[in-house]
Write a sequence for this structure.
């Protein structure tokens, strides 16, 4: 008889790049965690002799790993890793994040499996978040896809995290979501996705492992899929270039927006958006058949994304 075993996924924030905290706090990423990819690359280079058509050996070059994790959003603590710097208290207990520059915060992830008492845990070190996608879909919890690169790893034969916090936090769900563009709530939303790419990467010297993690050029994209409503003519005009436009213009005006997520207990995570411009705009299901509806599909580029969290859970890294 075989067993699927039990698994553990948790993370903590490093004190500095590749430096474990002296008193770590371990955090669940969220609910319904799924590790989509965890891979280590040795960047081997074959070495040959001129009189031999087979390689003599393969030489290890740079070491780098990749991690992709999906989970239901339950808390905001990954935002420090997304924006590269700590959130700032606005004086009322609300934490606010803005995109940083230069060296960034990094995390350490613990992926463990216990099969019939045989434990293998991969400790991923110097992990830098490169992309963070928040997806709000009709009928679903709010889903996050977090993509990271990491500098090093170690194999442990026991599960490191003891007490893990965040497990009692309920997920944010679609009916607590609100998307506003140009001060107008987009009604009959089917799916909305905000993607934050911070341009992060690992910097290297004459070492096999990276020496630090740095933020790069940030890019933000907002996608909305919705049933056509009274807001549709305004959305078409914005795609043309400005409010009230009746034909495409030579330039596209920027408007403001926000993606707001509120949980049943009153906790909220919001993403104020500045410089929102439609990049592409389309209709689907014309004419609709059966129970179909005419759909709008909008891709928007955003100049600046910030975040704010008004939550009851204490910052585990404060």
């Amino acid at each position: 008889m075989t067993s699927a075993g039990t698994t553990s996924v948790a993370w903590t924030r490093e004190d500095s790049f590749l430096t474990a905290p002296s008193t770590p706090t371990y955090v669940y990423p969220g609910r319904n965690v799924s590790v989509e990819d965890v891979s280590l690359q040795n960047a081997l280079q074959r070495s040959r002799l001129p009189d031999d058509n087979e390689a003599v050996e393969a030489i290890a070059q740079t070491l780098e790993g990749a991690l992709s994790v999906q989970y239901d959003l339950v808390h905001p603590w990954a935002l420090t890793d997304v924006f590269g710097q700590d959130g700032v208290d606005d004086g009322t207990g609300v934490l606010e994040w803005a995109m940083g520059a230069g060296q960034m915060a990094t995390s350490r992830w613990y992926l463990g499996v216990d099969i019939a008492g045989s434990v293998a845990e991969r400790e991923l070190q110097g992990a830098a978040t490169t992309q963070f996608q928040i997806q709000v879909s009709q009928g679903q919890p709010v889903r996050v896809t977090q993509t990271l690169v990491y500098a090093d790893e170690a194999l442990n034969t026991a599960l490191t995290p003891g007490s893990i916090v965040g497990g009692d936090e309920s997920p944010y769900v679609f009916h607590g979501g609100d998307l506003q563009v140009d001060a107008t709530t987009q009604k009959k939303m089917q799916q909305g996705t905000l993607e934050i790419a911070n341009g992060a990467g690992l910097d290297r010297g004459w070492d096999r492992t990276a020496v630090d993690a740095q933020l790069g050029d940030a890019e933000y994209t907002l996608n909305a899929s919705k049933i056509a409503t009274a807001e549709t003519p305004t959305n078409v005009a914005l795609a043309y270039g400005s409010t009230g436009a009746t034909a495409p213009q030579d330039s596209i005006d920027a408007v403001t927006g926000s993606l707001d997520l509120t949980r049943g207990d009153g906790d909220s995570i919001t993403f104020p958006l500045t410089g929102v411009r439609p990049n592409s705009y389309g209709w689907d299901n014309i004419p609709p058949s059966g129970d179909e509806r005419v759909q709008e599909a909008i891709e928007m580029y955003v100049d600046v994304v910030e975040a704010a969290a008004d939550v009851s859970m204490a910052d585990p890294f404060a």
